[in-house]
Amino acid sequence: MRQEILRVEATRNRRRFLKFLFSSPLLLGVSHQNNWAQQADAPGQADLRHAINVFDLEAVAQAKIAPHHWAYLASGGDDEKTLRANADDFDLYQIRPKRFVDIRQMDLSCELFGQRYPSPLFLSPVGSQKAFHPEAEVATAKAAAQRGHQMVLSSVSSFSVSEVAASYGRAPWFQLYPTDVWSVTEGIIRRAEDAGCPALVLTLDNGASSNRERLIRERLNSKVPCNACHTPGPQGYLSTRGTYRGLDLSSITTHLGVYTWELIDRIRNLTKMKMVAKGIMTAGDAALSVERGFDAVWVSNHGGRQLNSLFAPIEALPEVVQAVNGRCPILLDGGVRRGTDIFKALALGASAVCIGRPYIWGLGGFGQAGVAKALELLDAELLTDMKLAGTPTIAAITSSFVQRRQR
Length: 407
Description:
With about 400 residues, the chain is α/β, with parallel strands linked by helices. It has 16 helices and 12 strands. The chain has helices at about 1-20, 25-40, 55-65, 65-75, 80-90, 135-145, 160-170, 180-195, 215-220, 235-240, 260-270, 285-290, 315-325, 340-345, 355-365, 370-390; strands at about 95, 110, 115, 120-125, 150-155, 175, 200-205, 275-280, 295-300, 330-335, 350-355, 400-405. It has an 8-stranded parallel sheet. A two-stranded antiparallel sheet has the order 1-12.
């Protein structure tokens, strides 16, 4: 009798679980995304107008981008704990709305380095964009210019900084990876300076190659060799990157140079561009960056692609804000997928919030129009969230509008 009762209860629990599973928004989302992916297999079938969030763009991009290139874009370090934490840890914070606020006139604009932007959403540097779309950074630049967003160009971009600047209508910010040969590092800095780039972003967390297991497995399984895109080694890799074109790369052994204060001072003496410290995750490094003359601090863990078991940028932000104490702007990237993510980062003290993968999803799925759509979707979400929270301007989004979730 007891065994029969246990059997019936087990059956009942199994049915409850299956009912929950098949009504789950997660499963429905997967089904929705698979439908988009199937549409993407037939050229022109996936309608960009039907995308209601950036995850819809992700589904189409994954269907269109070559698997080994997708693995490069999507992978994180080791078992990707940091990658997951970046997005998940936004949920550690909740929004506290304010009522009795006039929200009939809304303003998303912000100011950074004396320039006014229509949105605090910036485009993080993503290299090798030809891996995702033939028009690569040119399409990204045109979309960013179309919507007025600040673009940050990777030094390992497929197109040169001058080519991207021509498409952008002005020079982007330029993100630097120093090589182990000063003449090459100097050469690309001068090219950024000559193009008119207003800011130089030093990525401080990429001094060594990380263990990206998803990418490694895909390369082992892929029938397409990497030398279909570029020859092996740093010299072959950089020779196909626009800004390095024409430089003597023969002595380079790595483009993952380590930043020392000696190198940073040498760079500072070479350029008049604003200097931004990207990869800051602690109060100590933030304070040191300001004291040593950086013009802005960028809270980032490289999109979860480097060190595993790192805490998320949104968790690092409060201590960085306290250490900087208003002395310079603070940017943040990592796991930003929703307007509420942008809102929370702004409330916790970020001056601008940056995205990488979401706009590349748009690029991979639809080219320039997809990048513009990703920006449009996130701007629209942020606008709605600001209205519902009672913050008619970016300046109105203060720490009083968020609280840490009580566990």
